[in-house]
Design goal:
alpha+beta, eight-stranded mixed beta sheet, six-stranded antiparallel beta sheet, 16 strands
């Protein structure tokens, strides 16, 4: 996994352009191999039925987050995959030609509107605790096989001097996975399955919300950014603040619905289903059940839990054929470090350790 340091830049377009330029080959490789993009998103975008949804998505997100929209434009241009391939969208009297990068960044907001779409793109697991002896957040980043070898770490510096580190999927905004910034604020993310009738078509995309969290000054600021986002579909956010020694699990749904759970001394396991808001799925139920059977008294127990692959159908640590655990991240609030483990966390040492202060 490569690390790229970028910034400070004069604007979002420049930052995106430099990232796209640096990882051009990785981005192009992902676009070629991502079957969800090739077989579902691209055909839908070419159909006449897609225009109202895509137009609304682009206009809403461009207006709310113009700097992040420019980051995506820059990423596309820098990587040599300009907006040429798919769809011409007229927004506010200007013509934007949509490329595959845009579709990837809005995949969760688009797939529910594609008949018979198969959205098995990511499933993640977290184990969290804040006790007198330990304050730790550990996270498995699970994704579709297309993402294997198509991720990188971005260490970005903003024009105001704030810097962030974000695990990034090729061609997407930093970060739909996990990241932290120089304010001592970190997050990990869990996808949750929405019901189609609850989705707000053309609302704010989750990639834009998580990019915004990289600039949050503290846990309350992060909450405010989530609450005001007007998201199209739901998500689960694990917010970690090393300065206040707090971890919050925030489950959200469309139409500004949310529920907040403060993590305490009882270890809290979260997969890809709502625990304190609503809904469940078989994969997450299996992992949730297995987690209750494993010890969680120490950091090594956490790593053993996230490395558990005993379940035949839905293991916590995934090795294919469709879903893979790309890496495991451990955020130590007392040690003020974030460690990234490549490979099974119960067997491997950290590949990277970053200070968070």
């Amino acid at each position: 996994m490569e690390i790229f340091e970028v910034g400070p830049c004069k604007d979002g377009f420049e930052m995106g352009f430099l990232i796209g330029q640096r990882f051009s080959m990785v981005i192009k490789s992902r676009l070629q191999r991502d079957l969800i993009l090739q077989k579902q998103l691209l055909p839908f975008a070419l159909s006449p039925h897609s225009k109202p949804l895509l137009t609304s998505l682009f206009e809403t997100n461009m207006n709310k987050y113009p700097n992040y929209w420019d980051e995506l434009r820059g990423t596309a241009q820098g990587s040599g995959t300009p907006f040429l391939e798919v769809y011409i969208c007229i927004i506010s009297m200007s013509v934007y030609i949509l490329g595959a990068i845009m579709l990837l960044n809005f995949r969760k907001e688009i797939l529910p509107f594609i008949p018979k779409a198969d959205d098995t793109n990511d499933d993640c697991s977290d184990i969290l605790v804040v006790s007198e002896s330990m304050a730790v957040a550990a996270h498995n980043e699970d994704a579709n096989v297309a993402l294997v070898g198509h991720t990188y770490l971005i260490k970005g510096t903003l024009s105001n001097g704030v810097h962030f580190t974000a695990y990034t999927y090729a061609g997407e905004l930093p970060s739909c996975a996990f990241g932290f910034n120089s304010h001592g604020l970190a997050y990990t993310l869990n996808s949750v399955p929405p019901s189609k009738h609850e989705i707000v078509a053309g609302g704010i995309g989750r990639n834009f919300i998580s990019r915004d969290l990289l600039e949050a000054q503290n846990i309350d600021d992060a909450l405010g950014r989530i609450y005001s986002s007007e998201a199209s579909v739901g998500h689960s956010y694990n917010l970690i603040d090393i300065n206040t020694r707090r971890i919050l699990n925030v489950e959200t749904a469309s139409r500004n619905r949310y529920s907040v759970h403060e993590v305490g001394s009882v270890p809290f396991f979260h997969a890809n289903m709502y625990l304190h808001l609503k809904e469940q799925d078989e994969n997450s139920l299996s992992r949730q059940k297995r987690a209750t059977m494993l010890p969680t008294g120490s950091r090594s127990d956490f790593l053993s839990l996230l490395g558990d692959n005993n379940a035949t159908k839905y293991p916590i640590y995934m090795t294919g054929p469709l879903l893979h655990t790309l890496c495991t991240v451990v955020i130590d609030l007392d040690g003020k470090t974030i460690s990234i483990i490549e490979g099974n966390p119960k067997e491997r040492e950290a590949s990277f350790v970053f200070p968070m202060s």
